[in-house]
Write a sequence for this structure.
């Protein structure tokens, strides 16, 4: 199943300004703060339960990196993590890079000044980098590199901004992007209560089992869930995009 929405220049101009949207994270009364806490708790659990060895993390539409970076900053498994964060907006991506550097996750050793965050071509500097921020289309498999299949796949802030057909397409392809036993964490609002069960059904069809979901007493703008890959993943069958934002 291919992404069904063709985003032309006109529709691209109508998309929201995500820089303003991320500012809500600085408001302690914003529901996004509660969503962020649920996502971070899930990330921490996934890292805690990960087997020994390297932990590959792939975060699509990573924004400013607030989901992952603060958790990695003080997590005992931080040195085991190889993470790629992909964000389309270059200003937002740079904020993520700044956060990576501030948390000491960019592989800079303080002597050569070489970091491990890359641009669209994925070119990074130091070999010690554990977090790589890439500016580009997070729906493009060409940008995933050898970070997939990932032990932790983050699909946060996506499913509320794409069509249902593209949600299903993304979930189906998540089966190829998540390692056996790996975790996929995703978010979606609950304004249409019928969508959530359908998404869980698509994850089940793709070989995932349910792990946990956020408290339904939270506002309807918040829903966070995690699924575990129960099958050995196979390579993506083609290079088609996973999704296209429609707002």
């Amino acid at each position: 199943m291919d992404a069904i929405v063709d985003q032309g220049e006109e529709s691209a101009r109508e998309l929201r300004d995500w820089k303003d949207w991320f500012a809500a994270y600085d408001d302690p009364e914003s529901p996004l703060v509660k969503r962020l806490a649920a996502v971070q708790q899930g990330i921490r659990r996934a890292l805690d339960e990960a087997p020994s060895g390297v932990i590959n993390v792939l975060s699509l539409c990573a924004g400013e990196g607030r989901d992952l970076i603060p958790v990695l900053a003080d997590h005992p498994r931080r040195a085991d993590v190889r993470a790629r964060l992909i964000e389309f907006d270059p200003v937002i991506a740079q904020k993520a890079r700044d956060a990576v550097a501030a948390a000491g996750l960019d592989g800079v050793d303080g002597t050569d000044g070489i970091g491990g965050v890359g641009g669209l071509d994925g070119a990074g500097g130091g070999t010690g980098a554990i977090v790589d921020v890439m500016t580009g289309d997070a729906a493009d498999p060409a940008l995933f590199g050898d970070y997939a299949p990932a032990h932790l796949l983050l699909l946060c802030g996506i499913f509320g901004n794409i069509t249902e057909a593209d949600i299903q397409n993304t979930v189906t392809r998540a089966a190829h992007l998540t390692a056996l036993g790996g975790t996929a964490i995703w978010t979606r609002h609950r304004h249409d209560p019928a969508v959530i069960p359908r998404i869980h059904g698509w994850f089940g069809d793709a070989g995932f089992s349910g792990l946990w979901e956020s408290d339904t007493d939270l506002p309807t703008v918040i829903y966070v869930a995690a699924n575990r890959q129960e099958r050995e993943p196979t390579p993506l069958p083609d290079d088609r995009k996973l999704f296209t934002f429609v707002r």
Remarks:
- Confidence is low (pLDDT under 50) at residues 1-13, 109-128.
- The first helix runs from residue 9 to 14.
- The CA atoms of residues 211 and 227 lie 5 Å apart.
- DSSP finds seven helices and seven strands in the chain.
